[in-house]
Design brief:
By secondary structure, this protein is α+β, with helices and mostly antiparallel strands.
């Protein structure tokens, strides 16, 4: 395209007449000069990012349009219709005297007409067809859970997404060692920090919305691994006619070297069109340790035969049986994840394979895998020694069977660092295959899984001193790896900018409303980073916050922030894809609350309430799913109901029945409620109401002064939501002036690495069943309720002579930084006015109360005012005053003169981080108030651990959480004697 340029702007502008082409149009030249001058003085500056300049003004030869072009910096901020309208109004007014000389006046930012930079989602008019795909263009899922009791209609059903969570543990050939790609700072490392968002929050949200989710790094944090290959013991064919297929997975008996592909070590089996529903093959197994394991399957494909699209895998787990339909025509030659289930050590389980229908095609059987395991890829004969989930992408992709030359070995093993970040998008391209396959060969067949979108999630967006956050950066690439501006399917890569803008906008809007009105929205970068440019479908490289900034990391370490940011990203993806494909959308609801479970006869009656989402109007539940578990095993597949109550009938005595509830709508399923439980004892001595008041999740204690700052987990470790997988160890450099030298000597915020790669148990919201089991073993029946339902009266305490209140590590917790404002504010207070009122009423009517937790004394002293209601309740009703915080380090409590448990006996509770139960790092001791007595002592210093009072009511107060007693027989012993004390 040719242009005539104005000399005053490095370009000459000519009029449209033939005669005038020999000399500049003085009137237009003057307007151009004055426009530039006015812009330099501030006119229109508010509409553009800092650093924006007028690049040129010219007449486009082909169209004759007058073009006002701004530099590339102009596209670093979002555009909306109102902003674009103001820009055009200003430009057209300025050039109104010459506007009749041109068919149109157009504004370009970089090389793009400014209207095209408005995301289609935010437009009120018609879509730009170059940026969207045909309406209702749904993809194919590899696997579908056939036992889900609800259907997703307007979420991510039919969509397939690829995620990866930053960097990982990698091998440096130059250093001859395995290492992190980033420094350990503020108790984590950037290679792990995004994992704490993606695995526990973002991936499940996307799957709950109906998406097929693939990760470019291992997602199973279970360090145990069990693999049963078709050639191994445990595999059995139960139908005749199986034949050998081609190369498939084979046992890994030694480390993987070079480009070795475990999916060439063995073979797979084929069976033509078996009778539907009849088991054709099965894999039986035991697990080495009770826990949660992802189950994944592998199968092969023979080019001369057609695989079945209706293979049915049945997983038999501790919660029952769950069936999956797997389309074996895609996704072959790798591991396909089905779901996560609970398995008990020492018990036999199986996965079976059958046909969903007889269509003349072939079932394929190869291997079944449980757990994530430890890394198996060796470099220079050295294994990483770490769980697979902490390793970099390239090692996972080798284990998954990806082709080395197209995906993860771009530099002939000379630079694993570069190979790792380049491989992630190529892995996604390999899953997709032709015509959008890996960039070295886009026509490579690949696995045929139609990928809709990829997301790279990082937390490394620079550093700045101060008490405000650095904020969120979004990176996209409008040009492709081959420098074209279109995806292989012909859609404009400007859709990448749409995705980046939508996700970044929703993240920042939600954070500003919920957490911090000062959250910074950083730039939208069009840049050719590998993770932004290589994906051959819409993609985004997200830099959520700064790993080096203590204020940002105060948010990153808070599980509430992780949940809501992950929800924002999920919402952005849903809204982008709904627009991209021209389909409606609905956002999945928030978890329910006010949950209670009570026994009536031999039935359990459940009640709950929906939760309003203040930042998403579509997130309204239309129904609910009730899940049940027996005797602390895994949960069943759930039952769908449309009301906020459910009755579970014909229950048996002696069984702990556990329940959790999710809210559902056309957009998907919420996260689950807390787990409550009920149980009937044979010849019950009475009934106990177990109240779960342990809702708290939070980051560690933060201290910040000019000379000393950091996270003090010796004061308060915080409470993970579920399990934490991103913690490396305590901070040891608290000097804000310490300078960065190397990754191993990073200065301010430097932290230990003794816990990296380990799973740290947090609040799993499932302690009512644990208490209930001990109550049942003591001869009492039990029901349970949330503290909210007790506080608001929907669960009536007065119906129960005995109550057991679980307060774990509940305590008043503020926002991640004190100066931030928002909707959350202080949360998790124990002795609220409503709870004090309910407990007083209960005890005044002769109630018998067990209450346990790490911060009960502190919560009575939230004010130094001894007339404060919390203090008076603690002293006058619980009969305690705080003796000391941090009362023990031994985790051992002893009998005191046989007043509770028999003399000479003791119990251990968790005080160190582990993967089974959260650590009660800050137990308290109490002085017994008038009429109360000491019942147990901490072993290491004889501080009071448990106090008791018996009068017109009875109460036992524990300075540590009951559920953290590590041995089940220890819990049973303590519970039995507490109930005896309260009732005798």
């Amino acid at each position: 395209m040719k242009y005539f340029f104005l000399t005053t702007l490095l370009l000459l502008l000519f009029s449209l007449t033939t005669e005038a082409q020999q000399k500049p149009d003085k009137q237009l030249t003057g307007l151009v000069n004055s426009f530039k001058s006015e812009f330099d003085k501030g006119k229109l500056k508010d509409e553009f990012p800092k650093g924006t300049k007028i690049d040129s003004v010219y007449i486009e030869e082909k169209s004759g349009n007058l073009i006002i072009k701004f530099n590339k910096r102009s596209i670093f901020k979002p555009f909306r219709e109102d902003k674009v309208g103001r820009i055009y109004t200003n430009v057209r007014q300025h050039f109104s005297k010459v506007s009749d000389k041109f068919p149109a006046i157009k504004v370009l930012c970089d090389t793009f007409e400014v209207t095209s930079l408005i995301p289609e989602y935010y437009k009120t008019g018609s879509y730009d067809k170059s940026k969207v795909k045909p309406a209702n263009d749904y993809s194919a899922h590899v696997s579908v859970n056939l036992d889900k009791p609800y259907t997703v209609k307007n979420g991510l059903n039919g969509r397939n997404l690829v995620l990866w969570q930053s960097h990982g543990w990698y091998y440096s050939p130059n250093d001859k060692m395995w290492m992190w790609q980033r420094a350990r700072l503020f108790q984590t490392v950037e290679d792990l920090s995004p994992t704490g968002f993606v695995i526990p929050f973002l991936a499940p949200m996307l799957e709950n919305a109906g998406a097929g989710v693939f990760l470019a790094r291992e997602r199973d944090t279970q360090i145990n691994e069990v693999i049963i290959d078709n050639g191994s013991n445990g595999y059995k064919e139960t139908s005749d006619g199986w034949i050998s297929g081609g190369a498939g997975f084979g046992p890994i008996t030694q480390p993987l070297y070079g480009e070795e592909n475990p999916f060439t070590f063995g073979d797979f089996r084929l069976l033509k069109s078996p009778e539907p529903g009849k088991t054709a093959a099965e894999w039986t197994f035991t697990v080495p340790e009770t826990g949660d394991y992802f189950v994944s399957v592998a199968y092969g494909s023979d080019s001369s035969k057609t695989n079945s699209s209706e293979a049915v895998y049945s997983v038999y787990h501790s919660g029952g049986r769950t069936d999956f339909r797997v389309n074996q025509q895609i996704g072959y030659g790798t591991w396909i994840y089905l779901a996560q289930f609970r398995f008990n050590a020492g018990e036999n389980y199986r996965v079976s394979l059958a046909s969903g229908k007889s269509d003349g095609n072939y079932l394929s059987a190869d291997a079944v895998r449980l757990g994530g395991g430890i890394g198996v890829v060796a470099r220079d004969s050295l294994l990483s020694g770490r769980p697979k989930f902490v390793e970099g992408s390239k090692y996972y992709e080798q284990f998954m069977g990806a082709p080395a030359d197209l995906v993860y070995n771009m530099r002939n093993f000379r630079d694993d660092y570069v190979d790792d970040y380049q491989s992630r998008s190529e892995y996604a391209n390999w899953l997709n295959g032709a015509p959008a396959g890996p960039n070295r060969n886009r026509n490579y067949k690949g696995l045929g899984i139609p990928i809709d979108l990829s997301l790279a999630f990082h937390t490394d967006a620079g550093v700045r001193n101060g008490d405000t956050t650095l904020g969120t950066l979004a990176i996209y690439s409008v040009s492709a790896f081959d420098t074209t501006y279109y995806f292989p399917d012909g859609v404009s890569r400007l859709s990448n900018r749409d995705l980046a803008d939508i996700v970044q906008t929703i993240i920042c809007e939600d954070i500003e409303k919920i957490f911090d009105s000062r959250w910074s929205r950083r730039d939208l970068w069009d840049s050719r980073y590998a993770e932004a440019v290589r994906s051959n479908f819409p993609s985004l490289l997200l830099e959520l916050l700064s790993q080096q900034d203590i204020t940002d990391m105060a948010y990153a370490s808070d599980p509430r922030f992780r949940f809501y940011v992950s929800r924002s990203i999920y919402k952005g993806i849903v809204k982008f894809l709904a627009t991209y494909h021209g389909t409606p959308y609905v956002i999945q609801p928030l978890p329910v609350n006010n949950f209670s479970v009570r026994f009536e006869g031999n039935s359990a009656v459940l009640n709950w309430s929906p939760v309003h989402d203040p930042v998403e109007k579509t997130a309204l539940p239309s129904g609910y799913v009730v899940y049940r578990s027996e005797n602390l095993n895994g949960f069943d597949n759930g039952r769908y109901v449309t009301t906020t109550s459910f009755t579970d009938k014909d229950l048996k005595p002696g069984v702990v029945y556990s329940y959790k509830v999710t809210a559902v709508n056309d957009g998907g399923e919420s996260f689950p409620s807390e787990v409550l439980a009920a149980g009937m004892a044979n010849n019950a001595k009475g009934e106990v109401l177990i109240v779960n008041g342990f809702d708290r999740v939070s980051g560690p204690a933060k201290i910040e002064t000019p000379d000393f700052a950091g996270f003090m987990d010796n004061i308060d470790m915080g409470v993970p939501w579920g399990n934490d997988i991103s913690y490396t160890g305590s901070t040891y450099d608290f000097n804000p002036k310490s300078e960065f030298r190397t990754n191993d000597a990073p200065g301010f915020g430097a932290s230990y690495g003794d816990y990296e790669g380990k799973v740290i148990a947090g609040n799993n919201f499932d302690y009512a069943p644990l208490h209930g089991k001990s109550v049942l073993n003591a001869g009492y029946s039990f029901s349970s309720a949330s503290d909210e339902s007790v506080e608001n009266g929907s669960a009536n305490l007065l119906k129960y002579k005995l109550a057991d209140f679980i307060y774990g590590e509940e305590k008043t917790t503020g926002r991640p930084i004190a100066s931030a404002d928002g909707l959350i504010g202080e949360d998790f207070s124990i002795f609220t006015p409503g709870m004090i009122k309910s407990l007083k009423n209960y005890l005044d009517n002769g109630g018998k109360l067990l209450i346990s937790g790490s911060y009960l004394g502190s919560e009575t002293r939230v004010s130094e005012d001894t007339l404060a209601p919390q203090f008076r309740f603690g002293k006058e009703y619980l009969k305690i005053t705080l003796q000391t915080k941090y009362a023990s380090k031994s985790g051992k409590v002893n009998s005191f003169r046989g007043r509770l448990i028999p003399a000479g006996m003791s119990a251990l509770f968790s005080q160190t981080l582990n993967d089974k139960i959260y650590a009660a790092e800050a137990p308290e001791s109490f002085y017994p108030a008038e009429g109360a007595e000491v019942l147990m002592l901490y072993d290491d210093n004889w501080n009071n651990a448990v106090t008791g009072y018996k009068g017109k009511y009875s109460v036992v107060t524990m300075g540590f959480p009951f559920e953290t007693i590590t041995a089940s027989d220890g819990r049973d012993l303590v519970m039995k004697h507490i109930l005896d004390y309260l009732t005798k």
